[in-house]
Design a protein that fits this description.
The chain has 27 helices and 21 strands. With 899 residues, the chain is of the alpha+beta class. The strands form 7 sheets. Strands 4, 5, 16, 17, 18 and 19 form a 6-stranded antiparallel β-sheet that branches. Strands 2-1-3-13-14 form a 5-stranded mixed β-sheet, covered by helices on one side. A two-stranded antiparallel sheet has the order 6-7. Residues 77-93, 848-868, 889-899 have a biased composition (Gly residues).
Length: 899
């Protein structure tokens, strides 16, 4: 190789790498100088003002201890560059980065003193290892202390609990109940193996081999509590047993959860599995106040636990998931939670079948034996405590459900309520409860004769509720004959449709939202509406062809047109059939209100019912015109509460049954008003004024209270399967329902029966027995209350369909005159906002209420009957449906037509 291609000689000091590492020089065997040093005098007395340079790491550390960290001086070689001879590649490597001077030695070297940049913040393996060992050691120490401090719980101690005392609204004691633990401890040998394996198969299939805890479940529960969410139950049978047995502390806290973990570990290590299983099944809550398998077997099947068959065992294992949602008798609640008898039966059967399938899968039951249990076992009445007889059981159920369903507000959970120790002050008025029960029994005893008329008078049921419009407080309910015999609370959800008592919501929607503009597109029509006056005119024609708001004929998904019928297939005011909304409400004309609902929009009718206080879960589909005439099934409580909104001039107060709760430490909960404006006073007061006409001289005259203003509405449903009267005064709103329902405990399907002929009447209307009960109760409930008038309504809205109608042809029943007169022209109804009992005129004459004389130009009823005029107005009552023939209605108890 030629000379000029030889590599240049390497710089002294071993080059850059050697200078970086401080390794021995390749030529001399000496260690390379530290960065910034060349060995020349200039390096020792550098130009940076330093007195000397640091010769190595040890020297740099010692210098740092004296004067803090100092940067080693840079040197400049002859070439004018840093690094000494040879320029950048010189022994000092140009940038002057010096080894960090050492400080005082620390026990934990973090941040690391001998590293730069991000490496300075990376912990060493020694530090990581030390921390891990320390952390694990701490956990072991804590676990050891926790394990030593906890005791194995004794199931028998959980039988100790306190009563809950319930009070009437006047502060007197209603009943003390709930603290008695219904439990009988049985031995492991008395527990059927099918019951043990039903629980194991469904809850914890590794029970017989696991350690007693589920780390994933524990982590999930702790995480949820740390977030402030709901805690979860123990994931293993051992953990659930521990949870049940620790009744002395039911608080949902992290400390309690950790205590449960330690107890579960100790129980799993020291207690035999047979004892754990027996303890769990002797302490678990199965619903119906039954703690433990023996009590549950008696509560559901009235037999000893060792007599249970595999199907019954699988059924009871489903109750462990929460009897509220699995007890086929259903759950009573002020706010429906989906725990109806039908829904619970479906859930219980599904869970039972799943358990049996898993028992076969895991080898605990033969397929042949499993095939025997495809339906729910026969179960019995859920209530037997004699102290809860009559209406008391329904009242207690209602108060308990209110507390539990609103536990976020009340701070009273089902577990805490089971533990007892509460003083629960209800809103129930002792006198009003007795008066409502007496009114129902009077009608039952005098009219319902199941022995004489078994085909029509069996399975007759009544329900009722009374609410204070000013507060929403439930003053009284009628839940059924006896809470220990009939366990469904008829004041709550029963499934009975409300019929024409739903029409006031249609009228309120028309006043609040208005009808849609038929000249605009659908989207624009939703925004540009016309508020409706009760003087607006609609058709009272029977079998009316129902139209959409834009005039097109409504058809269902199959293209079928809807023809709305009136009760008895009677038309009103032929040949024009025009009738204003006040008259249509007074006579309960279906066709007028079905068409009004279509013009407003059924979505707005639904929204209005919700605003008034009806619950969404009780509303039927709003996709059909009949929605406006009551295919929904709100409870008596909710109907009374919704009408109370009208009574309170639009102020809505949700119904409630508990005013306050106390325990040994003081007040736990106090009710606070949740009033909001559902309607303006103009809307609500005009609805009241129209409903006042219904009672003054319409289908609701049976409910009149002499000397006291009353507003209300009758309701009868298709097939005559239910009848209602809902009415109110300014101080009290009450709903009464009547229906026939065979809800025997083991019925697979609740079936509503027709009421034609029931009580000796051709047909049951809202104006018959329901209105009679309402009248008798309200007369007593308000006998000492001052008489208060309803607010005077202000005129509202625009008269819809106000075009003049052609003069009708006189009918053959026209009153003859002594001298020729022109053809009579019907007088159009133009009621004022506050008509008197006799100043509202229909199209064919004026109405006179009461008396045995003539009404207008026509004949009056025996006690103040139908409209007078050239053509007597047909007797009209309400009924949902699409065209079934119905019988004519009879006069009410105090005159007028039935509703």
């Amino acid at each position: 190789m030629s000379e000029h291609r030889r590599k240049p000689p390497q710089p002294q000091g071993g080059g850059r790498a050697a200078a970086r590492r401080g390794q021995p020089d390749a030529s001399s065997g000496r260690r390379a100088a530290p960065r910034g040093a060349t060995g020349s005098p200039a390096d020792f007395y550098g130009s940076g003002g330093e007195e000397h340079s640091y010769g190595g790491r040890a020297e740099a550390r010692r210098a740092a201890q004296k004067g803090g960290r100092r940067r080693a001086p840079e040197t400049t070689g002859p070439g004018g560059r840093r690094g000494g001879p040879g320029g950048p590649a010189g022994p000092g490597r140009g940038r002057g980065r010096a080894t960090p001077p050492p400080g005082k030695k620390r026990f934990i070297d973090y941040p690391r003193s001998d590293k730069f940049g991000w490496q300075r913040w990376m912990p060493s393996w020694k530090l990581v290892t030390g921390l891990f060992i320390g952390f694990m050691g701490s956990l072991v120490a804590v676990a050891g202390i926790g394990y030593a401090m906890v005791d194995i719980p004794i199931v028998a101690k959980t039988a100790k609990a306190q009563n809950n005392v319930y009070y009437w609204s006047d502060g007197s004691v209603m009943v003390a109940t709930g603290g008695e633990i219904n439990r009988q401890i049985i031995n492991y040998a008395d527990i059927p193996k099918e019951m043990r394996y039903a629980v194991i198969s469904q809850e914890n299939k590794t029970f017989e081999t696991d350690s007693g805890i589920d780390p994933k479940g524990i982590a999930r529960a702790v995480f949820n509590m740390a977030k402030g969410g709901q805690t979860q139950g123990g994931s293993t049978i051992t953990q659930q047993y521990v949870k049940n047995a620790m009744l002395d502390d039911q608080s949902q806290t992290l400390s309690r959860k950790f205590k449960e973990i330690f107890v579960s570990i100790k129980v799993g290590a020291e207690v035999p599995k047979t004892q754990i299983m027996a303890g769990y099944l002797n302490s678990a809550y199965f619903g119906r106040g039954a703690y433990g398998l023996e009590a549950a077997s008696r509560a559901y099947f009235n037999k000893d636990a060792d007599q249970l068959n595999p199907g019954e065992c699988a059924f009871l294992s489903a109750m462990l998931k929460g009897a509220t949602y699995y007890d086929p008798a259903g759950a009573t609640s002020l706010d429906p939670t989906g725990a109806t008898p039908e829904a619970n039966k479906k859930r219980a059967l599904s869970q039972m079948q799943d358990t049996l399938d898993k028992m076969v899968e895991y080898g605990h039951l033969s397929p042949t034996e499993r095939a025997k249990y495809r339906t729910l076992p026969k179960w019995q009445n859920p209530r037997s405590n004699s102290r809860l007889g009559g209406q008391i059981g329904y009242l207690v159920d209602l108060a308990k459900s209110y507390l539990i369903n609103n536990s976020e507000k009340t701070k009273v959970t089902e577990e805490k309520l089971q533990k007892g120790g509460y003083r629960i002050y209800t809103t129930f008025d002792k006198t009003k409860v007795k008066e409502l029960e007496s009114a129902v029994k009077k009608v039952q005893k005098g009219n319902i004769k199941p022995k004489q008329r078994p085909e029509t008078d069996t399975h007759v049921q009544f329900g009722g509720a009374s609410v204070d419009p000013a507060t929403g407080a439930i003053k009284a309910i009628y839940g059924g004959e006896d809470a220990t015999k009939h366990f469904t609370n008829n004041a709550d959800s029963t499934g009975a449709q409300v019929g024409s008592t739903f029409k006031p919501f249609v009228l309120a929607a028309a006043m609040k939202w208005g009808v849609k503009n038929p000249d605009l597109g659908d989207d624009q029509a939703q925004d540009e509406r016309t508020q409706v006056s009760p003087k607006s005119l609609y058709s009272g024609k029977n079998k009316l062809k129902i139209k959409n708001y834009d005039g097109s004929v409504w058809t269902d998904k199959d293209g079928k047109e809807w023809l709305q019928t009136n009760d008895g297939n009677e038309s009103v005011n032929p040949p024009t059939y025009k009738i204003d909304l006040r008259e249509a409400m007074r006579l309960s004309v279906n066709s007028a209100y079905v068409q009004l609902g279509m013009d407003v929009g059924l979505d707005k009718v639904k929204e209005t019912a919700l605003d008034a206080g009806v619950l969404k879960g009780s509303l039927a589909s709003a996709n059909y015109p009949s929605f406006s005439i009551g295919t929904s099934d709100p409870s008596a409580i909710r109907m009374a509460g919704a009408y109370a909104t009208f009574a309170a001039s639009g102020e809505q107060n949700p119904p409630y049954s508990v005013s306050k709760v106390e325990d040994k430490d003081g007040q736990v909960y106090k009710h606070r008003a949740e009033t909001h404006e559902a309607f303006t006073s103009a809307v609500a007061d005009n609805v009241t004024d129209v409903l006042k006409t219904v009672v003054d001289k319409g289908t609701g005259t049976s409910a009149q209270l002499p000397g006291r203003p009353v507003a209300g509405k009758t309701g009868t449903t298709d097939g005559n399967k239910s009848a209602w009267f809902v009415g109110y005064t300014p101080q009290l709103s009450t709903a009464i329902s009547m229906f026939r329902l065979d809800d025997n405990a083991n019925n697979k399907k609740r079936t509503f029966l027709e009421m034609y002929g029931t009580g000796g009447q051709e047909k049951i209307h809202g104006a018959s027995f329901p209105a009679e009960i309402w009248h008798d109760y309200m007369a007593q409930a308000l006998k000492n209350a001052p008489v208060k008038p309803f607010p005077t309504p202000v005129p509202i809205g625009k008269v819809i369909n106000a075009e003049p109608s052609p003069t009708p042809t006189p009918s053959v029943t026209e009153t003859e005159e002594t001298s020729p007169t022109p053809t009579p022209t019907p007088t159009q109804s133009s009621p004022s906002p506050t008509p008197s009992a006799s100043d509202t005129c229909g199209f064919f004459g004026c109405n006179n209420n009461g008396g045995n004389g003539n009404g207008g130009n026509g004949n009056g009823g025996a006690d103040g009957g139908t409209d007078g005029g050239t053509t007597p107005t047909p007797t009209i009552t309400e009924s949902t449906g699409t065209g079934n023939t119905r019988g004519n209605s009879n006069g009410g108890f105090f005159g007028g037509q039935n509703g």
